[in-house]
Amino acid sequence: MRPDKYIKNYIDGALVPPASGQYLDNVNPATGKVYSWLPDSDAEDVERAVAAAKKAFPEWSRCGVERRFRILSRIADIIEQNLDDFARAESIDNGKPLAMSRSVDIPRAQANFRFFATSILHFASEAHPVEGRAINYTLRQPIGVVGCISPWNLPLYLFTWKIAPALAAGNCVVAKPSELTPMTAYMLAKACIEAGLPKGVLNIVHGLGPKAGQAIVEHPEIKAISFTGGTKTGQAIARTAAPMFKKLSLELGGKNPNIIFADCDFDQMMVDTLRSSFSNNGQICLCGSRIYVERPLYERFRDELVKRAQFLKVGDPFSQVTDLGALVSEAHMEKVLSYISLAEMEGGKILCGGKRLELEGELAGGYFVRPTVIEGLPLECRTNQEEIFGPVVTIQPFDTEEEALQLANGTGYGLAATLWTQDISRAHRMAEQLEFGIVWINCWMERDLRTPFGGMKSSGVGREGGWEALRFFTEPKNVCVKY
Ligand code: TXE
Predict the structure, then answer these.
(1) pLDDT digits over 351-362, tens only?
(2) 251 flagged as catalytic
(3) Which of 285, 287, 294, 387 is catalytic?
(4) Is 106 within 8 Å of 91 (Cβ atoms)?
(5) CATH-assigned architecture of domain 256-448
(6) In this predicted structure, what is the pLDDT of residue 129?
(7) Residue pair 117/68 in contact by the 8 Å Cβ criterion
(8) Quick check: helix, strand or coil at residue 401?
(9) CATH number for the 9-252+459-482 domain, one of 3.40.605.10, 3.30.70.1450, 3.40.50.10230, 3.40.50.300?
(10) Cα separation values, 203 from 59, 83, 146, 375, Å
């Protein structure tokens, strides 16, 4: 399955150009050069997608879970069979190392379809008998047409994390991937056609957030919105969708703490902390960007982290030795670099990195930034409060458990926290008090698709994953029968 130069929308079962005939540039972030074009879709394309989805809904919602299971499993098979093509396309589009696309992004996209294809076979609803009098049972019915909007950091991974449960539950979908990383969503459309997904069940509209994305959010026939992206965008979506009483699932930003106690397994902690700091260039909402270390371990940790960060190889996403590829776009690189300058202005000391990496040849225009470790900043400064979403971490010592908790909970975000300690009582005690949707103890990114996934505070509203996703994408109806 080869990527094409001109990406098309997927509407009513066909690959079609945008209504306006206008296209946007799609840039390869490792070279800084335009390499393909995507539809600059508008409300007209969204209107067509919604009409197709509405038409497809009666049959798809009633065709039975067995049929939905079969078709979604076939889509998973096709992604698996085309792993190399999907992985190459993802790395060109996003700038991430091919090894990561091959081992994380695309396998997970395949797993999302397989997981929800089988989940729907087991999904059941409750009954509440009133002894001797009546029985209540809950029908869980698909909502209708739903909107899924996803970001650029884990393109196909997050796109399918929303689409798969929505389809499994019997909804028809209008989806928009990020305009920065549209290619694998386009390839997914081809996979859906090959798998025999009935036309109109899934529609993929490409284009800009404020234009195509906004048209999805404000369309009155789209009854639920599942969104992953920046907190500001989440606020804008809620402003439009909440007064329309749409169901909303918002997975937003994070400013995640890693809390490291001196009694931890140092070697394992170092391996995972390096990953949580710099995987995917720090462009994962779950990456730990504020690292708090118990004072007796602080200097040893600092020296080791800086040594390992300097050792990471930044460069060609297609080289086997590359650890960090390019950041997703020039604008995002500028944002990350501006935060590093801000950190210096706020009194932070840059221990390593801190600069753009200029490569030669084909990669001369690429958006590469060296892994950066900063110390000496207080909790209240902007560097420690705002999401940077790049290969940048701050480190700070602490003395007591209470202080660690105060630091960890001290931002407006609440997505994920990581805790390193061998003291089991402390681990449970702190897990209870950490204000985060996910708490990892002695690990990071240990994912299980059955668990509730999402954040507290400004990190979002609602949970994805497992039954939570199927509950979100269904409407519960109480039926009461008196006898
Ligand atoms: O994301 P946006 P951006 C954070 C990260 C990053 C910041 C901004 O800090 O630096 O957000 O990134 C669509 N109506 N995260 O601006 O805009 C858009 O087209 C409807 C965290 O690139 O949130 C894309 O498909 N849709 C994060 C999607 O929203 C709109 C992942 C995400 O883009 C829209 C990415 C609108 N008005 C960034 N405006 C995470 N939580 O993992 C934009 N979009």
Answers:
(1) 999 999 999 999
(2) yes
(3) 285
(4) no
(5) 3-Layer(aba) Sandwich (3.40)
(6) 97
(7) yes
(8) helix
(9) 3.40.605.10
(10) 16, 22, 10, 47
Spell out which residues line ligand 1, taking CB within 6 angstroms: 149-153, 176, 178-179, 209-210, 213-214, 217, 228-230, 233, 236-237, 251-253, 285, 332, 335, 387, 389
The enclosing H or E element of 271 equals helix 266-278
Q: Give residue 347 CA to ligand 1 midpoint distance, Å.
A: 29
Any idea what DSSP says for residue 104? I
Element (H, E) at 421: none
Indicate the top mutation candidate among 159, 233, 436 to test ligand 1's pocket, ranked by most ligand atoms within 8 A of CB.
233
- Beta-carbon count within 10 A of 124 CB: 8
Judged against a pLDDT cut of 80, whether residue 1 lies above it is answered with no
pLDDT, tens only, 30-86: 999 999 999 999 999 999 999 999 999 999 999 999 999 999 999 999 999 999 999
Mean pLDDT of 333-356: 98
Q: Are 395 and 302 in contact (CB under 8 A)?
A: yes
Give strand pairing partners of 247: 224
- Check whether 263 has a pLDDT greater than 90: yes
Ligand 1 center to 222 CA (angstroms): 20
Give the torsion through C-alpha atoms of 262, 264, 268, 269, to 10 deg: -50
